[in-house]
């Protein structure tokens, strides 16, 4: 199977089954799902009254926040590397 062919991977996130379709490996999809599940459970343990929709949105906000921080850090490091090359 080519890396560009889509694969179906079944995962459980916060007790709900999902079938994820994508080109990433099944192990990668399972890792991502596990991290989402872990984050949802962590947020839920601190805010047990949240309904699943709010919990999912807060999980997405946390993930996007982490992504932006990493993207900014990568950009700064790339700039430093480019300056060091000059």
From TrEMBL:
Domain of life, source organism: Bacteria
Location relative to the cell: Cytoplasm
Record's function text: Activator of cell division through the inhibition of FtsZ GTPase activity, therefore promoting FtsZ assembly into bundles of protofilaments necessary for the formation of the division Z ring. It is recruited early at mid-cell but it is not essential for cell division.
Q: Record's PANTHER family?
A: CELL DIVISION PROTEIN ZAPA (PTHR34981)
Among its keywords, does the record have Cell cycle?
yes
Q: What is this protein called?
A: Cell division protein ZapA
Q: Name one GO biological process term.
A: cell division
Q: Does the keyword Cell division apply?
A: yes
Q: Which InterPro entries match?
A: Bac_CellDiv_Activator, Cell_div_ZapA-like, Cell_div_ZapA-like_sf
What species is given as this protein's source? Cytobacillus purgationiresistens
């Amino acid at each position: 199977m080519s890396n560009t062919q889509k694969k179906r991977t079944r995962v459980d996130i916060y007790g709900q089954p999902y079938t994820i379709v994508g080109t990433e490996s099944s192990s990668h999809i399972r890792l991502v799902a596990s991290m989402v599940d872990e984050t949802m459970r962590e947020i839920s343990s601190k805010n047990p009254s949240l309904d699943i929709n709010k919990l999912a949105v807060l999980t997405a906000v946390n993930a996007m926040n982490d992504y932006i921080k990493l993207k900014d850090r990568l950009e700064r490091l790339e700039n430093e590397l480019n300056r060091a090359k000059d």
